[in-house]
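Practice problem 4.
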């Protein structure tokens, strides 16, 4: 099963996350299928960039969003429409 989730990057105490489509059996920072965006919680304001078209493609093909990515996706989608 494909999950859309966060993969952590950055250095110690300075996280940076990529939103990725990955096989659910892979580790958090392991192999992934596609990078769908990124999230930077350190910057002010917090930076969220997600390719909503590709996320919708993956959802149509049976992928599931993690809880955190679902919240970020709602925010990203809302900012595009506004």
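Answer key:
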């Amino acid at each position: 099963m494909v999950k859309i989730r966060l993969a952590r990057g950055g250095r110690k105490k300075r996280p940076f996350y990529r939103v990725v489509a990955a096989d659910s059996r892979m580790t958090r920072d392991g192999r992934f299928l596609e990078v769908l965006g990124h999230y930077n919680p350190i910057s002010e304001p917090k930076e969220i960039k997600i390719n909503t078209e590709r996320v919708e493609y993956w959802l149509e093909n049976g992928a599931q969003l993690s809880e955190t990515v679902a919240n970020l996706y709602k925010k990203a989608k809302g900012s595009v429409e506004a």
